[in-house]
Amino acid sequence: MACRKDTLLLVALLSFVTFYVRAKVDIDMDDTVSVYRGDPAELHCRYSFSEEPSMMMVQWFVKYPNGSRERISYRDLTIERVDEGTDYTDRITVAGDSNSETLTVLTVKLSDEREFFCQVNGMAAGNGERKTHLAVFDPPEAPVIEGVHSGISVSSHLLSKIASCEARKGYPRPNITWYRDETPLIPINGEINVVTLVTREASGFYTVQSELQYKITKEDKDALFSCKVSYFVPGDVRTSASQDINITVHYPTTNVELWRELPKGLVKEGDTVEIRCQGDGNPPPPYTFNREQQPEIELDSTNGQLVLHEVTRRDSGVYQCRTLDLDTEEDVVGNMHLTVHYLDPAVVVPKDSEVMSKGESLTATCNALSSLNTSTVWFKDDREIGRGHMLFLEDATFDTAGEYVCEVSVPTLAGFQSTGSVHIIVQGVPKIKDAENVDMEERAGKWVNLSCEARGYPRPIIAWSIYGTQSWREVLNRVTEDSVQSLVTLKVTSDITAICNATNDMGVETKTHSIKSMSMVTPAAKFQAEGSGIIIVIIIICILLLAILGSVLYFLYKKGKLPCGRSGKQEIINVYSTAEKPNKEDIVVEMKAEKTEEAVLLKGVNGDKKPMNDQ
Known about the structure:
There is one protein chain. 15% of the residues lie in helices and 47% in strands. Strands 31, 33, 34, 36, 37, 39, 41 and 42 form an eight-stranded mixed β-sheet that branches. The chain has five helices and 44 strands. By secondary structure, the protein is mostly beta strands. The radius of gyration is 67 Å and the shape is elongated. Helix 3 (566-579) runs antiparallel to helix 4 and helix 4 (584-592) runs antiparallel to helix 5. It comes from Clupea harengus (Atlantic herring). Residues 1-23 form the signal peptide.
């Protein structure tokens, strides 16, 4: 009996093993899921059974750094729950169906980077387990670079610290690369070395510090150094660059340059000249100045600057700037040639003044010694009259006299000029302006002004000879170098002859003013008197006519011939209305309708047959 039971148990066990071997489950999971710190992470577990399971159970496990595992959730056909008392109790959710399940980590931390296991058990239908690695990323802060503050000498034979670069709070660990003018620096023995320090903080972040050690040369004085940090992000690698820095390189002076800073262009006498000296060394060495022909005399200068005040032609020559090459301990010299241009005062021939006779000719010259080509212009009364260093004056007249100014200038140097002058005097017999004799008529009793102006050299004298009046006087006598003007005022009492005599050592010239005296009663006054008489006659005639008209009206009124009733008024109105029309016959006819005597009287008043004088 016992043997039979053992046989039945063995058969059942073999049957179960045979069924289990035939049944299996396939599980599909991502090898890695990458997320940023703080984001949610979804872990998918997809499975399928070869046989429909009658019972199914899905469990999630995590593996800690020490190798231990802990279940964090459980689900079967009737129950779905998150395990209590784990690091994920409040940070995960689980959702699934018959073929898949998704575990969601709500807010990912750096410590969540580990393996997550999905275990599926279908009992007789099969069981299995797969895992997913959760990768967490957090970019570092922008790299901060700091260069050395002191200068670095190229004379040093050792590697020198150039700069340091730091990238903080990154995960996973970032990497730092150094660049010179955008070219990556690869460590080379004896030339380039990079020292890196990696720090893992308690929070899990990495901080990377890198120091660049470099063999400096003179060519690095203008180079730009920078560092770039590279870091991982989900599905990619990114970089972040620091700002560029330039380092101070110390190197000896091997060449000196000397130039003129001021003035720009050509230098002329009186200018202030500024000469500068600069070498190719750093830091700039002290400089001294001297003239090539006097090397033992040091000129006063400040910080590589030599100033020469109010230079003259004697300051022309070669100037030198000197400094010391510290490597060879030899002088480094720069040279510059300075040319100071000059323009001497203009010399005019004839000098100062020259006396000419009318009709003569003269040639004047103007020259000025200069280091540059010059141009000469002649002026008289601020008006240009010629060009060139020679001026020709021909057939001199009094208008030729005056001040002649020559201006010598340098066309290539603005404002560089010199002037000279000559005074020309033209001698001759006096010449009266508007010398023609003058005939004029003036009313007796009127005061008249007479003017006489004469030119000549020696300056003439004006004398007046006046006949016909004793009432005169000279009110103006104005003189210049070669002219005189006289003004007299006189009273016309009769016909007058006034003679202007202009005399000098060379001769005399005269001008006569003849004034005819006119009566006090002029044609205009006569016409005015006659006109006044005519007006008086007209007024008297008008008064007589009004008197006659008044007498007639009064006579008719006394005779009762003037109607006073309504009809009479109408007749008077008719008379006035008819009078508006210049037809005398109508008036006569209308008055005849009453009485013939009135008509005769009216005809005597208004008739045309009487002469004008009788009326």
